């Protein structure tokens, strides 16, 4: 489904990604772990097509198509979804309006008809109940004054609504208490399917007790320095990242 080949990226002339190779098949969940500053969020921004990142080498293929040539709207239309470490706040736009606009923009880019308001309301109601997103949160401006947990639950609501084929979740667990972590994880697990793949970026092993990955990769200094099964996360929790940071610096 997704193939990242020798990806190098810079920000303001600083080399951040230094040759990432990663293949994710349909239905697989991969986790990327690693110390702060290793380039995890940079990888998610590059996949999302955020400005400011210069790709100096390599490619990213999604079902064989070059993602790096698509603008962010096209990426959403082909089924890529990125949940940001720091979700953006949009003061003038009600959450509900934002969700409807995002969904219909995706449908329009795909050449599909707009989803009418009654159908949309029904769908949002079902999904928001599962994710513990209140009616009040749907009426408020997007993410403005939302707690960390509310922002993350709302991101998973967006994801459930857009039904992407490939999801990147960047530190979805950061700032969540144990109840919010459970709700978010259940929401993510409900979206697991043989046709949908995910890349879960996290600093901590805890999230991976709830969302059990097929593969775990360690990123350090812009490279994947180790790959293993789900037990690698437990090993990292115990030993920390020290052996990988010193290894990558050498
Ligand atoms: P992680 O998500 O693994 O904590 P990031 O991808 O956020 O790491 O950051 C990787 C590195 O890139 C860090 O050293 C960070 O300081 C650097 N970096 C990120 N954005 C910029 C920027 N706009 N200008 C310069 N350096 C940046
Ligand atoms: Mg960080
Ligand atoms: Mg980060």
Average per-residue pLDDT, rounded, comes to: 92
Number of strands: 12
Structural class: alpha/beta
The parts where pLDDT drops under 50 for at least 5 residues are none
Q: What would you give as the CATH superfamily of the domain at 2-92 and 164-244? A: P-loop containing nucleotide triphosphate hydrolases
* Oligomer state of the chains in this structure: single chain
- β-sheet strand percentage: 25-35%
Order the strands across the largest sheet as they lie in space: 6-9-10-3-11-12
The level-1 CATH class of the domain at 2-92 and 164-244:
Alpha Beta
CATH topology of the domain at 2-92 and 164-244: Rossmann fold
CATH architecture of the domain at 2-92 and 164-244: 3-Layer(aba) Sandwich
The best one-word shape is: globular
Bound molecules: adenosine-5'-diphosphate, magnesium ion
Q: Termini distance?
A: 33 Å
Tell me the Rg in angstroms. 18 Å
Number of helices: 10
How much helical structure, as a percent, in the residues? 25-40%
Pfam families: ABC_tran
Protein name: Fe-S cluster assembly ATP-binding protein
GO molecular function: ATP binding; ATP hydrolysis activity
Keywords: ATP-binding, Nucleotide-binding
Task: Tell me what you see in this structure.
The protein is an alpha/beta fold. It has a domain at 2-92 and 164-244: P-loop containing nucleotide triphosphate hydrolases (Rossmann fold, 3-Layer(aba) Sandwich), CATH 3.40.50.300. Helices cover 40% and strands 28% of the residues. It has helices at residues 40-48, 72-78, 95-109, 117-130, 135-139, 148-162, 178-190, 207-210, 231-239, 242-249; strands at residues 2-11, 14-24, 29-33, 53-62, 65-66, 80-83, 90-94, 141-142, 166-170, 197-201, 215-220, 223-228. A six-stranded mixed β-sheet has the order 6-9-10-3-11-12, with helices on both faces. Strands 2-1-4-5 form a four-stranded antiparallel β-sheet. Helix 7 links the parallel strand 9 and strand 10. It is globular. The two termini are 33 Å apart. 36% of the residues are buried. The structure holds adenosine-5'-diphosphate and magnesium ion (MG) (2 copies). Adenosine-5'-diphosphate is lined by residues 11-12, 14, 16, 34, 36-42. InterPro entries: AAA+_ATPase, ABC_transporter-like_ATP-bd, ABC_transporter-like_CS, FeS-cluster_ATPase_SufC, P-loop_NTPase. Keywords: ATP-binding, Nucleotide-binding. Belongs to the ABC transporter superfamily. Ycf16 family.
